[in-house]
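FW: tagging you since you asked about this chain on Friday. Here's the raw sequence from the shared folder, copied in full. Didn't touch anything.
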Amino acid sequence: MEQLTRYDVTKLDDPKCVNTFRHKIRHDFNNCDFNSIVSVDERWNKAKDIINKTSDAVIGKQKKSKKPWFNDTCRIALKRKKESRIQWLSDTDNVEKENNYIICKKEVNNIIRYEKRRYTKTMLEETEEYQKSNRSRQLFQNINALRTGFKKQEKFLKN
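HL: got it, structure written out here
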């Protein structure tokens, strides 16, 4: 079974993107000669191809992120922590390197915790706005994203 491709429909909130998408769809449909195609299935497949190609080019595919709050600040801090850990492991007798690693580890934990809280706070503010503007679909998507929390990855065993 073919996997369903999801497009980043949030880009359609931008009027410029919507106009580009409409113009490209109209242009592609006007250039296609549907009268020469006899079969209904072939016409549908041609229309579907035009829509998919245009959507892929203009809108783009949706990018899934397990941790959307994990940004460049977190990456840089984590990299510093790894470097200090490698320095400490190369000379485990050095107390100064060990203390430096412990300090870096605490800083990284604080940065990650701060970024996660900030992300949660912005999500809650968005959810409030969706509730005020009666956008129920986005409201419940945000609620479910916040509510689910941690999900352990399942490993399936074969007999």
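FW: Helices lie at 15-31, 40-58, 72-90, 95-132, 136-148.
HL: agreed, and DSSP finds five helices and no strands in the chain.
FW: great, closing this out.
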